Amino acid sequence: MVLLRYGPVLAVVLLAGVTASPVAGDTASSQPGPAMEFRVNRQRAAAVKDAFKIAWDGYYKYAFPKDQLNPQTNDGANTRNGWGASAVDALSTAIVMEDKDIVKQIIDYVPKINFNQTTDSVSLFETTIRYLGGLLAGYDLLEGPFSHLSSDKNAKAALLKQAKNLADDLSFAFNTPTGIPSNTLILAEQSLGGDTTNGLATIGTLVLEWVHLSDLLGDKKYGALAEKAESYLLKPKPGIGEPFPGLLGTNVYLANGSFADSFGGWVGGDDSYYEYLIKMWAYDSSRFGLYKDRWIAAADSTIKYLASNPSSRPDLTFLAVYNGQKLIYESEHLACFAGGNFILGGLVLGEKKYTDFGIKLTTACHETYTGTATGIGPEIFDWIPSTCKNTGPQAPPTYEPPAYEPPSYVKRSPKLSASPEASPDAYNRIANDSPPPATLTVVTPPSTSTPPSTPPAKPDPCALPTLYNDQTAFYNKTGFYITDANYDLRPEVVESIYYAYRVTGDPKYQEWAWNAFLAINSTTRVGSGYSQVKNVNVKGGGGFTNNQESFFFAELMKYLYLIHSEDGMWQVNYKGRNEYVYNTEAHPFKVAGKALPTY
């Protein structure tokens, strides 16, 4: 029987067909504030926990202490330096799920990790958000509201000790002329990987973890490293790096701190820089006021310049990316975190316009799920703007950026998987002198052919590119067309749904999350765990890639669980305050300053 591959609670839930209706055992808890009510659905929370345990048991049996499980072949792979990425990433989720056995397995393992030893180059960004973030969150939670899960004081202390050891091993990354770190490190040689630039996200997604480590240790040196690097982003040098107020380019030169390009958006490679601006304010408003101001500038420019409505579904709102002031009407699953970030900004600033805009973005990203054959959204999608005219693309914004000559390459954060099926035709809707967007690494070779005597006719910028004509009916219905159909167990859509629920208390968002869980569970479950699938718009997902990423534990399972589980101080908007702030890997940190009230 196929349900035997699921855990007992999850099998019961699936057999019962639990969908939109509350089940026996639901409770509702009223929170202070304007008519806020959060409903606990214990059966759904238990079903998500069951899925987490299936994935963990497969990993622990076949892959531990390697970094991730290959669920189809029942073996493991070291994709994050062989330090047990899935174990460290899973810790904070196992804690909030109150699974003592898994928590013990992980905290018993942590002291054995030797962060000095690896045969691969190290990503400062990925190591910070997964390992450093996971260790710090585990320490906060086990020393705080979940102290009852372990009485082993030495094991708890080892979490912070290992976080310090890791940061000490990584600190040489900042030994550059500017203090902007190199993202690629060779630990054995204590040498940098030869990079001349680093990315917006890979620079700007260090400060929360490194500052929090300093605060816990009472040693400012760690946070000071990340804050110095961040200073080049908070006050960018004049030039091409800020095409819109608060919205920046992607690559920054290590030698002088200036920007190398004007590509950007709320997409992979840039995304979590913007995410951390408002989260630093939530972490400690007494120290990080400038971060808040820069988030407001970026948020206002995003609403004014980047918001775009598809021609076939003007009721939806997506965020375009940009090359200078020219917009590219493409987005991705990674960018769907933006809805939750705007909602959080509105929540802690008391600005309804940000919350309302975040709800719009979340709704549109939810539509990328409901529109596909699997009920899961694609990696990358495009649209035609509703303002498009046959005479040309959308009129450029009135804001005039500095003159800009684009480079011949684009470098993206390693958090975004490279996509060989990128969409070159999609850029027919922008000016001919604009290079492809930042999802590609492009080198233009010299031409050896003779140009035709009659130039080919330009395609209609308001029609789907020829390559995607077969999606015309799909686009007319959904408001987007798919240019990369894979799904990598990403959490961003569910993440924003979680924030929407915690700010509104509207149970429809629980239903959205539950339906996403059912779709993900039925489509990606394979072998001893869960895997990335190749095509979300084909029933069954079009095949598996035998890859269970560590962020499946840290992010996806956590948000799916929290939206249905008991309330607590680790939840967003708990009793009108935010006692914890989540890093970009969904690891919750206890705030250092006064917990900001929510509005």
Q: Can you offer a commentary on this structure?
A:
This protein starts with 7 loop residues before the first helix and ends in a 9-residue tail after the last strand. It has a single domain, classed as Glycosyltransferase. With 599 residues, it is an alpha+beta fold. Helices cover 39% and strands 10% of the residues. Its EC number is 3.2.1.-. Keywords: Calcium, Disulfide bond, Glycoprotein, Glycosidase, Hydrolase, Metal-binding, Signal. Belongs to the glycosyl hydrolase 47 family. This is alpha-1,2-Mannosidase. Pfam families: Glyco_hydro_47.
Strand content: 5-15%
Please tally the β strands and state the result: 21
What would CATH call the class?
Mainly Alpha
The domain tally reads 1
Low-pLDDT residue spans = 15-35, 391-448
Distinct helical segment count: 17
Largest sheet: 3 strands, antiparallel
Tell me roughly what share of residues is in helical segments: 25-40%
CATH-scheme architecture: Alpha/alpha barrel
Tell me the CATH topology.
Answer: Glycosyltransferase
Q: Nearest-angstrom radius of gyration?
A: 23 Å
Question: What's the pLDDT, averaged over the residues?
Answer: 87
- How far the N terminus sits from the C terminus, by CA atoms, comes to 50 Å
Task: Kindly report the spatial arrangement of strands forming the biggest sheet.
Answer: 5-6-7
Shape: globular
Structural class by SSE content: alpha+beta
